[in-house]
């Protein structure tokens, strides 16, 4: 019996005194200070962690003040990451918009400059009398493209009407032609077709091309705005706690060397970015619609060939009228009566020449590059919102070889729960972030509605139609899949998600695994008391 007592006393002595030296907190002190925090109040050695709200309440090197500071740091760093990722995407969208915008406006400038040069050469004095109509046409095209409230078809009809008025007077200097007579002439134009089929053919091509260009540019702008606004959505308290637990709790627990398990990180990120992931469906639909518009900008007639061919086509229309002037005049005189002869004698304007440059119908090299670049970008960003959680985990998570030696939120071991799906509804059983799936973020819902409106505009533009949809972004109570506005969810108990307890995560140690330093020592007081009691009982015997 004495021998047994001696052995137990030796064991007790080894446990109590052999490992009695408190574990130092030098690593966390250095880390904490490197983050810009003051070391006042930071423990030199481990302390009991009952005061912690987020991290494990075992032995720790973190005070409640340190935990609060690291919690706020977690929020700032994660929000910065999301915003930076969004800014990168927005910059890409803005860059593509600028490239296309510069290209299209340069097309209009080149076309107008070509018209002025060729008409001055080919039509001489006549150009000065009809120049204002051309200026107004290109001004209307620019204003429409820029988003002004211009009816494109009416603008084109108005151009041909003004051109007819000026040409009819200029080509008939022997007559006195007043406003009332010109109104009568205008009424005959639809039947008599003074410019042949050019107005109708140009209207089809110009409207399809400029509508597609404007809507495409709007799509790039709306996409960038959606990214900016959604990337600024504030994080929930539960999300910040989960990020803190994953990022800085290992430091407090003395296992800073362990990176978060890959699936653990994905579940945290999917929970935090659940609302943002709900953009995925409409985001992909928008990219698909924009790619269809890209195709329309190059086929069946490319945007550059349509815009740059304007001078030649308009010159053809004017020459058609000059060649058929006598026939047109006779029919007009029959319908409107003969105008009064002028006392002034002016020379008849000679027939002009079409000196405008012939334009190929195939896309030019610059257009091909612009459309190729934007198409590549649209395909690359198509799954941005559902790939974002994985992207943010790349620099955080452990590698495949560390699956048994990673931080799982409680200890250094394998992470067992499965990875959640994408979007808000899929997070109902997320083991890392508690989410009320009946309360979607309203900023995200509004952007989803904006994307839907833009998609409809793009679909109309594909068919050459322009339409202004009423902005219904504020009336979104029915938007989303199974989602509802706050007041509706609170009133209708049927819309409340079932109350499911957060699944417990058990970390099973691997066989022959070394125990992590600092973990087993937490049980020393209990072991010591047990051995002291046993020795006392034995001595009494």
From TrEMBL:
Biased composition, class Basic and acidic residues, residue ranges? 344-356
Record InterPro entries: Glypican, Glypican_CS
Q: Name one GO molecular function term.
A: fibroblast growth factor binding
User: What span is annotated as the signal peptide, if there is one?
Assistant: 1-18
> Which residue stretches belong to region Disordered?
338-362, 478-504
Q: How does it sit in the membrane?
A: Lipid-anchor; GPI-anchor
Highest taxon in the source lineage = Eukaryota
The UniProt entry's GO biological process terms, in alphabetical order, are: cell migration; negative regulation of fibroblast growth factor receptor signaling pathway; regulation of protein localization to membrane
Q: Name one GO cellular component term.
A: synapse
**What is the protein name stated in its UniProt record?**
Glypican-1
Q: Which organism is it from?
A: Sinocyclocheilus rhinocerous
């Amino acid at each position: 019996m004495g021998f047994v007592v001696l052995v137990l006393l030796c064991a007790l002595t080894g446990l109590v005194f052999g490992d009695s030296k408190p574990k130092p907190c030098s690593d966390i002190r250095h880390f904490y200070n490197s983050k810009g925090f003051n070391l006042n109040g930071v423990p030199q050695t481990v302390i009991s962690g009952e005061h912690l709200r987020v991290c494990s309440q075992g032995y720790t090197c973190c005070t409640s003040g340190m935990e609060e500071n690291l919690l706020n740091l977690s929020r700032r760093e994660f929000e910065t990451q999301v915003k930076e990722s969004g800014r990168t995407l927005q910059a890409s969208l803005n860059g593509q918009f600028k490239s296309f915008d510069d290209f299209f406006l340069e097309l209009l400038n080149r076309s107008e400059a070509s018209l002025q040069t060729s008409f001055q050469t080919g039509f001489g004095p006549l150009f000065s009398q009809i120049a204002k109509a051309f200026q107004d046409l290109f001004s209307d095209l620019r204003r429409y493209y820029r988003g002004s409230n211009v009816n494109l078809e009416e603008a084109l009809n108005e151009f041909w009407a003004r051109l007819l008025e000026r040409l009819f007077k200029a080509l008939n200097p022997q007559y006195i032609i007043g406003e009332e007579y010109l109104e009568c002439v205008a009424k005959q134009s639809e039947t008599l077709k003074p410019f042949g089929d050019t107005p109708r053919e140009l209207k089809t091509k110009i409207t399809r091309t400029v509508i597609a260009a404007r809507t495409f540019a709007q799509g790039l702008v709306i996409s960038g705005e959606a990214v900016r606004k959604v990337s600024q959505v504030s994080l929930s308290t539960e999300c910040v706690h989960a990020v803190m637990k994953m990022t800085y709790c290992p430091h407090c627990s003395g296992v800073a060397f362990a990176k978060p398990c890959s699936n653990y990180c994905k579940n945290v990120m999917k929970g935090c970015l659940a609302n943002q992931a709900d953009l995925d469906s409409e985001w992909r639909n928008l990219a698909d619609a924009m790619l269809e518009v890209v195709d329309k900008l190059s086929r069946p007639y490319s945007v550059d060939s349509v815009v740059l061919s304007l001078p030649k086509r308009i010159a053809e229309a004017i020459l058609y009228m000059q060649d058929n002037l006598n026939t047109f005049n006779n029919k007009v005189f029959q319908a409107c009566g003969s105008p009064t002869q002028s006392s002034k004698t002016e020379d008849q304007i000679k027939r002009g020449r079409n000196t405008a440059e012939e334009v190929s119908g195939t896309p030019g090299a610059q257009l091909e590059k612009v459309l190729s670049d934007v198409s590549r970008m649209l395909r690359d960003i198509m799954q941005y919102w559902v790939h974002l959680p994985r992207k943010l985990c790349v620099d955080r998570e452990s590698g495949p070889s560390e699956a048994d030696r990673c931080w799982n939120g409680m200890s250094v071991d394998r992470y067992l729960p499965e990875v959640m799906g994408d979007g808000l509804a899929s997070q109902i059983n997320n083991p890392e972030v508690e989410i009320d799936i009946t309360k979607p973020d309203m900023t995200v819902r509004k952007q989803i509605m904006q994307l839907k409106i833009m998609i409809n505009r793009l679909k109309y533009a594909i068919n050459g139609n322009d339409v202004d949809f009423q902005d219904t972004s504020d009336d979104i109570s029915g938007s989303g899949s199974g989602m509802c506005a706050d007041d509706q969810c609170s009133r209708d108990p049927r819309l409340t998600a079932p109350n499911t307890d957060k699944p417990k995560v058990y970390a099973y140690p691997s066989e022959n695994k070394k125990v992590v330093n600092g973990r087993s020592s937490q049980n020393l007081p209990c072991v010591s008391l047990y051995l002291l009691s046993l020795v006392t009982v034995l001595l009494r015997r």
